[in-house]
């Protein structure tokens, strides 16, 4: 008889593979928490996972639930380590993948470089056959050329085939027929068709999605097989779930078919964690910020819900159009600004921070590994915000001479002192992050003052209070275990799938039946899929969103719909759309409203962790005080700050800034005037004066 | 520097760019017309109190330079003392600060702090129909601006926050597509208002004096970039003349000194038809060329353009006088942009690539939707091939130098929205643009019309004189439009207005291959084999031109 439930989450990052393990006593609900870190082991990433389990002393044969997040897909894409893909598409459209959308984001630049297609022209082939936008067959599919195409692909060393036909989102029959025939003629090849991944329109985006999915499929399948086999060999008999970009987890079988859905699994678990944390502590509206070594990522959670979208692109920035992947991904903004971001001065004496990063090697100058560029971390050290005698949890002796020299070089170019340069770096870095947070809030019609900032990752806690002050946010929460928060988020995830289907319908009497049928049909599809995973229909929860717009517009606004769609309720739905639209865009129109598609969320709990709060310990915060030091708060001046040992903070403790909380993974900078309180889960709540 | 802290300046300057991006996003998402939300034929910006452009958002590079000129004209007509908080101005008339043509509506909102104007937020967007002789309002046959639609001569759309309903009513009644016009107008209003809100927040935080000083500092930064860029260019006086498709000859002289860049356009043909540009429009072409060669990365603000001088002569194609028409101003502007680049190409070959398809290739198609019966209008620019440069082939299928962060319309969306069938969207394999590095490919699009009583209007240049090759590279290929009617010979067009189309007629749009760079015989044989394998060239061509055996 088992008295313990063991849940484990492992997160494979660029440098480290993280582990969080909760050993929960089923009788008392009390948990013992184990965390561990080991090196990531490319290209055999599964080895790193087995290593970290070993290091944490977790016996795989005792684990009930294992969630796993990985960067294997995004790495294969950005490092171009996928396989050779052949694309089969509708007659007249083989060049769609290369034509793309024709945009030049870097528009003054005559030397702009258009992204190269993942499939060269000779491997893009066409078949006759045509569907209309209403899903009617205009011309039957002719497969007679397919054997010769596949023979060419084989001869050219193709390892995966993608199929994308025009209007397959409306009627996938031709794609299904072609895919069946490919599987019959060439069973070993990895093959995917666009409608299996997305049922939304736009042929270039769908082609790109199918191609990139095919590109990573053999690599990802191999990875997942080795991981399952490796765990089984060590006696693991529990359920293995893989983190998805939509903040849910999914089964290995399902992910192996469409591995592209893992593309943003790392950030997704952190943002989901922030949403779950918000639910736990009664903060439904959260701005989530994850600051790592090279980037900062942020996302907005409203009413406990993460926002999932399908207009996701890789390698897209001000210099490049990038590549679209039309899969459900948590709505996030990522900027090149982390602890290792390099500060530099341009030819016109302007200070910048990032996007170049010193990375792990040589790292910030203070690592003493030969780095000569000043980074945000060096500035934080110089200003006393990071403890120079407890750098990286005491594992690194801070090379302050190197940090000073690097900061002085920046100061000299600006004509200011080392300290002024360090302050400038912090302010510019903070400003970059404030702008990113504005993009997910203000630019989407939300006022950041209505939100609580939840900051995590290695650097989140250092900057959060300053960012909150700038944005007018009243409260910051630094989660317990902020540096391994993403792994915690994974453990809180549901088995979740997001279905997006393009379907045009005018919102007028008589339309409800058709719309209701579409939801019902999609719900049935979801239930069938869950059933194959052994999940009973009764356990599945649905959220129905409609994507609406004024007639003739293009961009849609999502509205959550409660209950069945009937003609009687269309008026209320339309009103809800007008309100959502007006909030985002400042006005509404007396124009007809149309439905452009549906977004259905299907989710089921699979062994999710239940957190239990501890009562206040009654000890004063002074029990955790480990000293005082002078800290430079940039705009808030130099202050004599109380330094607290994060590992000794207990529920109910409270104190005021100026202060710094330190543990081995995190430094929390508390500004003058801030009030701090520790909750029953060990989270640090910082209230601002605002 | 007036006691303000440079990091604060930097933070305000970054914020300005973020605000214009937000203005842009808001307008784009709420627009009714595909030309705005999909083609992104719009621009947004912030000007200082005097109307100098301080920051601009994404969209069309050619639109960025419009807003400052519009605001300055508004200030000419409405002295600052007469402007009140809550006023919002509109102008589309090139003779009243509109710069381009009547289809482009500019909205400008003065931002007040303590009773003084501290900045302007402004945007411009292409409206599908503003009346005039033809649907879509742009006619290649127009000779006077009166034939091109309703004129809005820098008037108040809102006065002290109160809508001037008369202007709204006049605009609506003059358009063939009033519902689109209303939606697009409100999208523009939302854009300038969001910009105003954000600027007021900045002023609230940093104070108006600091905000103004940050703007001035930003202008000086732009100017310093420009001067550094000019100093890198070889001094000299460079003259160039180019024959156009219609036989006219356009001439330019560019004189570069240590600290100035003067574009002389005085020796050019008299204005004619609707292919003319306002003086301000010609300035924008020169600004774009100047930006591209001096410093493409610098902030494109008013300060940056201080070293640039443009000389024109009234009554010419580059300085039209009232009441000259200018529906197709954009083809004149892009010809001028291309002409200046070509003039400099031989002297700064590492900066200027070989010629590209260099036309908006404006295409207007309209008629009843065969399934819904609703009237539709497509107004779209086309993608084409870009020129090769030292070290690499030209880009295939991207927008011209006048359309930057602009998107083509997916075939799936076009078929649903317009009820046309898209038979083909492909790269063209026309022979041309050969070189050690070859030109990028243009496109071939076939729209099949599904209903009677549709129409087509087009305005293409580079239809006879192809994109130029550089350093021994071959010329590219021209742009053109064909109408293919069942059982009839193909009709070929460069300019055409209201060409009737009926069921099963096919519109075939073809854009040019860019020019090549260097001797084709020096091309890497692997690259030649790759082109052969990809079907871009024939074995005969590979042997005859590239010497491949």
Give a brief rundown of this model.
The complex is a heterodimer of chains A (690) and B (549). Chain A is of the alpha+beta class.
N-C termini distance of chain B: 68 Å
**Architecture (CATH level 2) name of the domain at 85-215 in chain A:** 3-Layer(aba) Sandwich
The termini of chain A sit apart by 53 Å
Q: How many DSSP-defined strands of chain B? A: 20
Could you say which overall geometry of chain A the principal axes of the C-alpha atoms support? Answer: globular
Oligomer: heterodimer
CATH hierarchy class name of the domain at 85-215 in chain A? Alpha Beta
Gyration radius over CA of chain A: 26 Å
CATH fold node name of the domain at 85-215 in chain A: Rossmann fold
Largest β sheet strand count, sense and barrel closure of chain B? 7 strands, antiparallel
Strand content of chain A: 25-35%
Class based on secondary structure composition and strand pairing of chain B: alpha+beta
Morphology call of chain B: globular
Question: How many extended strands of chain A?
Answer: 35
Domain Acetophenone carboxylase-like C-terminal (chain A): 507-687
GO molecular function (chain A): 5-oxoprolinase (ATP-hydrolyzing) activity
Domain Hydantoinase/oxoprolinase N-terminal (chain A): 7-184
Pfam family, one (chain A): Hydantoinase_A
């Amino acid at each position: 008889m088992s008295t313990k439930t063991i849940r484990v989450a492992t997160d494979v990052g660029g440098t480290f593979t993280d582990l969080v393990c909760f050993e929960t006593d089923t009788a008392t609900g009390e948990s013992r928490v184990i965390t561990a870190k080991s090196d990531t082991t490319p290209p055999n990433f599964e080895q790193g996972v087995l290593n970290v389990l070993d290091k944490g002393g977790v016996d795989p044969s005792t684990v009930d639930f294992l969630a796993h997040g990985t960067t294997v897909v995004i790495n294969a894409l950005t490092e171009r380590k996928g396989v050779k893909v052949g694309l089969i598409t509708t007659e007249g459209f083989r060049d769609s993948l290369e034509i793309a959308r024709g945009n030049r984001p870097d528009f003054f630049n005559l030397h702009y470089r258009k992204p190269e297609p993942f499939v060269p022209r000779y491997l893009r082939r066409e078949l006759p056959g045509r569907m209309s936008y209403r899903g009617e067959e205009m011309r039957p599919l002719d497969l007679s050329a397919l054997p010769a195409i596949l023979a060419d692909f084989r001869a050219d060393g193709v390892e995966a085939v993608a199929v994308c036909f025009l209007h397959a989102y409306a009627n996938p029959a031709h794609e299904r027929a072609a895919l069946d025939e490919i599987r019959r003629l060439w069973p070993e090849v990895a093959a995917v068709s666009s409608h299996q991944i997305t049922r939304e329109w736009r042929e270039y985006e769908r082609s790109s999605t199918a191609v990139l999915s095919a590109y990573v499929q053999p690599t990802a399948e191999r990875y997942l097989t080795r991981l399952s086999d490796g765990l089984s060999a060590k006696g693991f008999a529990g359920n293995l779930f893989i983190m998805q970009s939509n903040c849910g987890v999914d089964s290995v079988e399902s992910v192996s078919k469409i591995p592209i859905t893992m593309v943003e699994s790392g950030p997704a678990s952190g943002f989901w964690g922030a949403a779950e944390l918000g639910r736990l502590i009664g903060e439904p509206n959260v701005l989530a910020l994850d600051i790592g070594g090279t980037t900062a990522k942020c996302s907005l959670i409203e009413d406990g819900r993460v926002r999932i979208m399908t207009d996701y692109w890789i390698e897209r920035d001000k210099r490049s159009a990038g590549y679209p992947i039309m899969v459900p991904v948590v709505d996030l903004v990522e900027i090149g600004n982390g602890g290792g971001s390099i500060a530099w001065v341009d030819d016109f004496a302007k200070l910048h921070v990032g996007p170049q990063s010193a990375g792990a090697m040589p790292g910030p100058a203070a690592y003493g590994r030969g780095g000569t560029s000043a980074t945000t971390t060096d500035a934080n050290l110089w200003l006393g915000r990071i403890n120079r005698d407890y750098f990286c949890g005491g594992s690194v002796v801070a090379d302050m001479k190197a940090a000073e020299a690097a900061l002085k070089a920046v100061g000299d170019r600006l004509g200011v002192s080392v300290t002024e340069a360090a302050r400038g770096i912090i302010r510019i870095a903070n400003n970059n992050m404030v702008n990113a947070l504005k993009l997910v809030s203000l630019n989407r019609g939300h006022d950041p003052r209505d939100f609580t900032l939840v900051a995590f990752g290695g650097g989140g806690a250092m900057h959060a209070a300053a960012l909150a002050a700038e944005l007018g946010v009243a409260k910051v929460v630094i989660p317990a275990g902020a540096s391994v928060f993403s792994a915690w988020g994974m453990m809180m995830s549901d088995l979740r799938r997001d279905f997006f289907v393009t379907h045009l319908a005018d919102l007028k009497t008589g339309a409800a039946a058709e719309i209701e049928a579409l939801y019902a049909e999609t719900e049935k599809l979801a239930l069938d899929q869950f059933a194959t995973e052994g999940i009973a229909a009764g356990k599945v929860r649905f959220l129905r969103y409609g994507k609406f717009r004024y007639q003739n517009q293009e961009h849609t606004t999502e509205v959550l719909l409660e209950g069945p769609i009937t003609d009687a309720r269309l008026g209320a739905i339309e009103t809800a759309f007008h309100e959502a639209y007006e909030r985002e865009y400042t006005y509404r129109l007396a124009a007809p409203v149309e439905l452009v598609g549906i977004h259905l969320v299907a989710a089921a709990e699979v062994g999710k962790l239940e957190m239990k709060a501890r009562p206040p310990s009654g000890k004063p915060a002074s029990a955790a005080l480990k000293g005082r030091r002078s800290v430079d708060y940039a705009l808030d001046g130099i202050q004599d700050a109380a330094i607290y040992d994060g590992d000794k903070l207990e529920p109910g403790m409270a104190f005021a800034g100026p202060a710094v909380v330190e543990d081995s993974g995190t430094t929390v900078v508390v500004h003058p005037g801030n009030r701090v309180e520790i909750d029953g889960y060990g989270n640090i709540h910082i209230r601002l004066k605002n | 520097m007036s006691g303000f802290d440079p990091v604060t300046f930097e933070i305000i300057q970054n914020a300005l760019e973020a605000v214009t991006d937000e203005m842009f996003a808001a307008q784009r998402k709420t627009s009714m017309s595909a030309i705005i939300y999909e083609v992104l034929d719009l621009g947004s910006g912030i000007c200082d109190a005097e109307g100098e452009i301080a920051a601009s958002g994404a969209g069309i590079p050619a639109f960025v330079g419009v807003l400052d000129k519009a605001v300055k004209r508004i200030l000419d007509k409405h002295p600052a003392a007469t402007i009140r908080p809550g006023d919002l101005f509109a102008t589309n008339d090139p003779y009243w600060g509109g710069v381009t043509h009547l289809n482009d509506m500019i909205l400008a909102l003065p931002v007040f702090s303590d009773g003084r104007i501290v900045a302007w937020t402004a945007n411009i967007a292409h409206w599908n129909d503003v009346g005039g002789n033809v649907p879509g309002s742009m006619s290649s046959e127009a000779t006077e601006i009166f034939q091109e639609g309703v004129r809005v001569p820098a008037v108040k759309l809102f006065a002290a926050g109160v809508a001037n309903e008369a202007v709204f009513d006049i605009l609506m009644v003059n358009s063939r597509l009033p519902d689109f016009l209303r939606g697009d107008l409100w999208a523009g209003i939302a854009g300038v208002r969001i910009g105003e809100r954000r600027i007021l927040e900045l002023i609230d935080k940093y104070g108006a004096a600091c905000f103004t000083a940050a703007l001035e500092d930003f202008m000086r930064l732009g100017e310093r970039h420009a001067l550094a860029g000019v100093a890198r260019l070889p001094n000299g006086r460079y003259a160039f003349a180019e024959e156009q498709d219609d036989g006219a000859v356009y001439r330019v002289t560019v004189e570069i000194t240590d600290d100035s860049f003067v574009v002389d356009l005085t020796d050019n043909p008299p204005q004619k038809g609707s292919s003319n540009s306002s003086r301000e429009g010609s300035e924008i072409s020169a600004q774009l060329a100047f930006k591209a060669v001096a410093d493409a990365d610098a902030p494109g603000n008013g300060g940056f353009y201080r070293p640039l001088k443009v000389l024109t002569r009234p009554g010419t194609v580059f300085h039209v006088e009232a009441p000259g028409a200018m529906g197709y101003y954009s083809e004149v502007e892009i010809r001028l942009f291309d002409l200046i680049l070509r003039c400099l190409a031989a002297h700064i070959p590492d900066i200027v690539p070989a010629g590209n398809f260099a036309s908006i290739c404006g295409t207007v198609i309209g008629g009843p939707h065969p399934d819904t019966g609703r009237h539709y209008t497509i107004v779209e620019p086309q993608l084409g091939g870009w020129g090769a440069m030292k070290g690499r082939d030209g880009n295939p299928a991207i927008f011209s130098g006048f359309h930057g962060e602009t998107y083509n319309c997916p075939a799936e969306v076009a078929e649903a929205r317009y009820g046309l069938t898209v038979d083909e969207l492909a790269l063209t394999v026309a022979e041309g643009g050969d070189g050690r590095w070859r030109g990028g490919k243009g496109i071939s699009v076939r729209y099949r019309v599904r209903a009677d009583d549709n129409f087509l209007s087009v305005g293409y240049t580079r239809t006879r004189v192809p994109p130029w090759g550089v350093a021994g590279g071959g010329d590219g290929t021209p742009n053109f439009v064909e109408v293919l009617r069942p059982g009839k010979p193909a009709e070929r067009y460069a300019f055409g207005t209201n060409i009737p189309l009926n069921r099963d007629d096919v519109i075939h749009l073809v854009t040019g291959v860019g020019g090549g760079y260097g001797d084709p015989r020096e091309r890497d044989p692997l690259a030649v084999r790759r082109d052969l394998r990809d079907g871009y060239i024939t074995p005969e061509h590979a042997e005859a031109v590239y010497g491949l055996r």
